[in-house]
């Protein structure tokens, strides 16, 4: 349909009046508005202070940029400067764990605080995907890369990481000078055992995991150190290996009862949940008959058991934040390359003061 001559009605094929076409402003348009060359605009945009450009010219260019709403091409700018305001984070399965997002959130908050944005790649342990993610981050000239695993373990450092600054988070590399940020497993095991010692318990069992890991070795060492400091002899018969899940804790209860322990430190909160089930099954109560301490502070478990579980938290948020600070040089690098983060105690109601029973003839 077309309009009749003199009609104010526009034809359907005509563009609507007062419509502005939205597209990015180009550097050439800025140059024309400021009456300078494109090269001059580029020097001002990239803040080349040593360029011979007068103050008035710089002001004209900046005014034109502001009025026209020009946004520099970030990737091109990164290529010129050799760096960007991005920090990469490559993780194997961190977004699907019970602690989903805590390391990411800690890193993201700390990065943002210092003017950086986090680029995140969750590779699910897929090696080709991991290589592609690191390659993409290097192309974007990231300031550096955090390389993280979903549980504390030894990691193989991808060769491509050596092309930039990097920090390992929740993992470490053997025979390497790579910087790493990990939980202090020994301190955590010691703190968990000390909760029970402070409440008067001396016959304390430890349900350790069957899985070889820094957590298995570190928490056992912490348990032994706490006993030694309190003058309690270490009894290897009170250390049990249990599958690190609810069924493992449930299966261990018979041994705990037979050993006559008054308290148990569990490798993780899922094991503790199984201990709750097993003790209830044999008619024993927590903490009156046996006090229980877990590890991890999985909120969905620990805070909602009855009674709520005393535990030691894994410091995932602080791991992410510390990784960024180390990467940016805001914290001093650890002497041996590994920064250990304290695991905080979370006391709830699964532990009570142990009181000796009065003799029957009193």
Automatic annotation (TrEMBL):
Residues 25-81 form the HTH lacI-type domain. GO terms for molecular function: DNA binding. Keywords: DNA-binding, Repressor, Transcription, Transcription regulation. SMART domains: HTH_LACI (SM00354). Residues 1-23 are annotated as: Disordered. CDD domains: HTH_LacI (cd01392), PBP1_sucrose_transcription_regulator (cd06288). It holds the Pfam family LacI. InterPro entries: HTH_LacI, LacI/GalR-like_sensor, Lambda_DNA-bd_dom_sf, Peripla_BP_I. Signal peptide: none annotated. Residues 1-11 have a biased composition (Polar residues). The keyword Transit peptide does not apply. This is LacI family DNA-binding transcriptional regulator. It comes from Cryobacterium glucosi.
């Amino acid at each position: 349909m077309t309009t009749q001559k003199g009609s104010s009605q526009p034809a359907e094929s005509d563009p609507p009046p007062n419509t502005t076409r939205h597209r990015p402003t180009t550097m050439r348009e800025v140059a024309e508005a400021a009456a300078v060359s494109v090269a001059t605009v580029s020097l001002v945009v990239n803040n080349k202070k040593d360029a011979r450009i007068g103050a008035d010219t710089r002001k004209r260019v900046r005014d034109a940029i502001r009025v026209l709403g020009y946004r520099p091409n970030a990737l091109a700018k990164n290529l010129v400067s050799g760096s960007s305001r991005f920090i990469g984070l490559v993780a194997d399965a961190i977004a699907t764990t019970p602690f989903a997002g805590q390391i990411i959130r800690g890193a993201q908050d700390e990065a943002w605080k210092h003017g950086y944005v986090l680029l995140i790649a969750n590779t699910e342990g897929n090696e080709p995907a991991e290589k592609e993610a690191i390659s993409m981050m290097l192309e974007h000239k990231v300031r550096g890369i955090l390389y993280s695993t979903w549980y504390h373990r030894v990691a193989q450092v991808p060769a491509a990481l050596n092309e930039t600054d990097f920090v390992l988070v929740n993992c470490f590399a053997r025979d390497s000078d790579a910087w790493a940020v990990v939980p202090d497993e020994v301190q955590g095991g010691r703190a968990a055992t000390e909760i029970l010692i402070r409440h008067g318990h001396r016959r304390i069992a430890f349900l350790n995991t069957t899985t070889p890991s820094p957590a298995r070795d570190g928490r056992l060492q912490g348990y032994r150190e706490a006993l030694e400091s309190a003058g309690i002899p270490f009894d290897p018969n009170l250390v049990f290996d249990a599958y690190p899940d609810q069924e493992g804790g449930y299966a261990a209860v018979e041994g705990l009862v037979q050993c006559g322990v008054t308290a148990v430190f569990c490798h993780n909160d899922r094991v503790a949940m199984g201990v709750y089930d097993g003790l209830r099954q044999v008619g024993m109560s927590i903490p009156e008959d046996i006090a229980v301490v877990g590890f991890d502070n999985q909120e969905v478990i620990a805070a909602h058991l009855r009674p709520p579980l005393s535990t030691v938290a894994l410091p995932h948020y602080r791991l992410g934040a510390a990784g960024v600070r180390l990467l940016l040089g805001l914290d001093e690098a650890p002497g041996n390359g590994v920064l250990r983060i304290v695991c905080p105690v979370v006391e709830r109601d699964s532990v009570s003061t142990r009181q000796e029973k009065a003799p029957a003839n009193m």
